[in-house]
Each structure stands twice: as structure tokens, then as C-alpha cells.
């Protein structure tokens, strides 16, 4: 947590949130802004990438597949596939992106380009009073990454740890991050949290009137409900 510098990048800027400098071994996350009417240069990565539209409209090209997506939509790019993003609107485009490198794993065979997941399409899964919607994961064709929306009612969840490396980005609401029995920081829209594998933590919604809405991404891919046994 803490302030992250926005660095110029072509016709916009990028904020690097999670990478190896924080000790991450499985994922990299960043927020990318593309100004009105501009297009990113065509490029490709050796890693899988999943983007979520925080705000704005986006025309995405992946290989020979073109899609138009907007706020709340998700889109994945298989490793090695050339892609580019264009902002066709009169306002800025904000994307939250995650890339997962292949860690100690040989490259797999080529995969088909998955269709986007539109806001509201994903199935809601209940976990007590909390719920999540998986936007991207093995069930949508991703090999390395799971991306989900989590809705947290007022209150604090029990401490828990996951078998995956995770980044949580606050979309709306206010709350508090707990690491063990210590408060690690306050949460508000735009806050980003990196959670290593096995670290016991919980998120607390401190607003009695509003749900805390978060975007979560993690690798290795799996279920957001997966937890390690309590000690």
C-alpha cells in the first residue's frame, strides 16, 4: 500500500502495483491509462494477461479477433498473442492489468482466444454473507490467472491464507486490511494490496452502509475460495 507514482507511457501513463520488487513470483499488476482517441502500440508478452476496464471504453485487438468492451468488462490475452488497445471515447480509458509468467513450467500448446466476460454475466458464488464472481480463470480459458469481483458486507472475515499469490484492488467502499492480528492499512477506492502465498490476512468492511467491492487477481489459477489449513 502507499502512493504509487504514475509514469508516462506513450499516450497515457502506467502505475506499477505489484512486481518482483515486492517479492512477487507469480504475477505482475498495473493500472494503465490511455487518453482519448489514442491506441497502444501492438505488442505481445511471453506471459498470459487479463485486463479489467476500470473506467471508459476500449477496442481490443488480440491476434485477428477484435472486441469492444467497457467499464466492468474483462478480457484475457493468451501468452504470445499480439494485441493492442484503443480508446474510442472522448474521455480517458483506465485498465487494471495482471500478467502471470510461467514459473518452472514449460510452454503449453496454443490456445483459442477467449471471449470477453461482460459485467453482470459471471455466476455469483456465495461464501456465507460474502460473494464473488469469477470473470476469468481456467473455466474461461486462462491457464495462469484467476480474476474475480468480491462483495464484502460490513464486518471482518476470519483470518485465512491462500495457496496462491494475490493482488486485491478496491473498486468502491472503505475498509481495513488485517495481516495477522495487526491492522496493515486503511482501504479506499484505488487501494491495492499484495498478499503472498500463505500470509494470514483478512479484509474488513468498516462502512455500515455500503458493500466493499474489490477486484481480485491471483496466480496460480484456481478458486477464490481455496484456503490453506489453519495452523
Amino acid at each position: 500500500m502507499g502512493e504509487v507514482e504514475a509514469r508516462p507511457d506513450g499516450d497515457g501513463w502506467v502505475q506499477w502495483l505489484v512486481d518482483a520488487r515486492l517479492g512477487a513470483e507469480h504475477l505482475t499488476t498495473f493500472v494503465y491509462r490511455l487518453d482519448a482517441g489514442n491506441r497502444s502500440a501492438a505488442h505481445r508478452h511471453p506471459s498470459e494477461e487479463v485486463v479489467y476496464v476500470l473506467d471508459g471504453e476500449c477496442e481490443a485487438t488480440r491476434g485477428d479477433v477484435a472486441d469492444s468492451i467497457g467499464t466492468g468488462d474483462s478480457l484475457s490475452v493468451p501468452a504470445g498473442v499480439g494485441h493492442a488497445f484503443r480508446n474510442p471515447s472522448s474521455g480517458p480509458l483506465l485498465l487494471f492489468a495482471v500478467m502471470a509468467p510461467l514459473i518452472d513450467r514449460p510452454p503449453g500448446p496454443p490456445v483459442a482466444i477467449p471471449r470477453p466476460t461482460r459485467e453482470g454475466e459471471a455466476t455469483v458464488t456465495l461464501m456465507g454473507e460474502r460473494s464473488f464472481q469469477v470473470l476469468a480463470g481456467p473455466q474461461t480459458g486462462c491457464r495462469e490467472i484467476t480474476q474475480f469481483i468480491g462483495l464484502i458486507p460490513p464486518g471482518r472475515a476470519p483470518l485465512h491464507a491462500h495457496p496462491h499469490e494475490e493482488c486485491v484492488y478496491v473498486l468502491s467502499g472503505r475498509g481495513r486490511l488485517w495481516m495477522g492480528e495487526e491492522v496493515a492499512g486503511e482501504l479506499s477506492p484505488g487501494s491495492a494490496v499484495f498478499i503472498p502465498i500463505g500470509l494470514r490476512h483478512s479484509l474488513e468492511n468498516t462502512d455500515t452502509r455500503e458493500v466493499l467491492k474489490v477486484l481480485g487477481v491471483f496466480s496460480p489459477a484456481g478458486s477464490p475460495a481455496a484456503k490453506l489449513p489453519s495452523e
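The two ends are 27 Å apart (CA to CA). Residues 92 and 173 are 22 Å apart (CA to CA).
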